[in-house]
């Protein structure tokens, strides 16, 4: 009976989170509902494991608490993803949701961010970064990871340094625009993790990129 109640709770969270994707027109389960369902299952497991002689009751309490926590984080991330998609539309920046980590990833190709072999931000791109900084300052519960990459032209040591300098440039710009430095980490990956074929100029331009991950908060904003 208790297992049925937990299952019903998870199913209810999923059904309540069914929405229409504004970009595809297809029905989908929101990340908030997914987070709520995952939180409910985890909460139930923890409650049952620590509930002593009242494992069934503890599982139900844990499911409810976990569902609220996971759902709250998911809703927070859903709202931020929507805002970022609207803000980055037409800028050349791709906005993607990482299904494994729950982070919102922004992919910024070299064609709009940096000149070849340079780490100073293109002046034409600074406006986009300023808009991004405003949103990151408004949604201030998460850490932000800035990753720099290069193509495979040149030696590994040079590219590693260049990628770190590019990541630092973007991170420092966001900080100057008001994003708390304690939230931001910059990492260079050199020529590793290419997303396109380095044998063509078009592919190399895609690989010369900066990616920003807006990581999910550990707790529901305002409750942790």
From TrEMBL:
It is found in: Cell outer membrane. PROSITE patterns: OMPA_1 (PS01068), OMPA_2 (PS51123), PROKAR_LIPOPROTEIN (PS51257). This is OmpA family protein. The keyword DNA-binding does not apply. CDD domains: OmpA_C-like (cd07185). One of its GO terms (cellular component) is cell outer membrane. Pfam families: Gly-zipper_Omp, OmpA. Gene3D superfamilies: OmpA-like domain. The keyword Transmembrane applies.
């Amino acid at each position: 009976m208790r297992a049925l109640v937990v299952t019903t709770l998870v199913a209810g969270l999923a059904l309540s989170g069914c929405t229409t994707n504004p970009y595809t027109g297809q029905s989908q389960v929101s990340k908030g509902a997914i987070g709520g369902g995952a939180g409910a299952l985890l909460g139930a497991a923890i409650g049952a494991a620590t509930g002593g002689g009242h494992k069934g009751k503890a599982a139900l309490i844990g499911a409810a608490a976990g569902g609220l926590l996971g759902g709250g984080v998911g809703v927070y991330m859903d709202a931020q993803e929507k805002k970022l998609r609207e803000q980055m539309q037409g800028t050349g920046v791709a906005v993607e949701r990482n299904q494994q980590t729950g982070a919102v990833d922004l992919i910024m190709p070299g064609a709009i961010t940096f000149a070849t072999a340079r780490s100073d931000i293109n002046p034409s791109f600074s406006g986009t970064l300023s808009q991004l900084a405003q949103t990151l300052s408004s949604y201030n519960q998460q850490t932000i990871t800035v990753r720099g990459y290069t193509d495979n032209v040149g030696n590994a040591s040079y590219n590693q340094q260049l990628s770190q300098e590019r990541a630092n440039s973007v991170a420092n710009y966001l900080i100057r625009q008001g994003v708390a430095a304690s939230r931001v980490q910059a990492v260079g990956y050199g020529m590793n993790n290419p997303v396109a074929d380095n044998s063509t100029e078009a592919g190399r331009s895609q690989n010369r990129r900066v990616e920003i991950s807006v990581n999910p908060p550990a707790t529901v904003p305002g409750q942790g």
